[in-house]
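To whoever is on call:

I kicked off a structure prediction for a single chain this morning and the downstream step that reads the tokens threw a length-mismatch warning. I double-checked the sequence; it's 181 residues and nothing unusual in it as far as I can see. Pasting both halves so you can look.
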Amino acid sequence: MAKASVFIADGFEEIEALTAVDLLRRGGIAADLVSASSGLSRTGAHGVKVLCDRVMEDCDWAGSDMLVLPGGWPGAENLRNQAELCERLERFTAEGRWVAAICAAPYVLGELGLLRGRRATCYPGFEKTLAGAEPTGALVERDGRIITGRGPGAAAEFALALVEALAGKKKADEVRAGLAG
């Protein structure tokens, strides 16, 4: 079974984080909420408190197939300030493993130089932080093994792109169909 690690820092965008975890799990993918700070409890940008599955120092880096960064502010900035996470993002990218970020969080990938020469999208106004990328403004952009999303309104499409990357188009279509009600 594929596994995704979704990193949560105080100030995260709730809809982006929880939609990603929800749809990944609906797609049969193990998805953990990983606290980027000490302690399992994190508070989102809109005051929603979540209890993460584990803290970053207990993250199963070797067992993770994808690292996911929800946006939100100052959540994205708080993720950028985590040296171990940034090192792992660089390593995953160098190894050709999946990395995904939505909203303000593609800024982290831009700061690390991971978007150079790639198409990427982000929350409007953050395009200047995507160093060396070609900002597209699309809801979701997939370039190689990096997936970026525009913002809260793209949370479901972003999450479905994660499912497709890890479980295939057929599974992503099944999850999409299950959302139609």
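Update from on-call: the warning came from a stale cache, not from the record. Cleared it. Sanity check on the structure: The longest strand covers residues 3-8.
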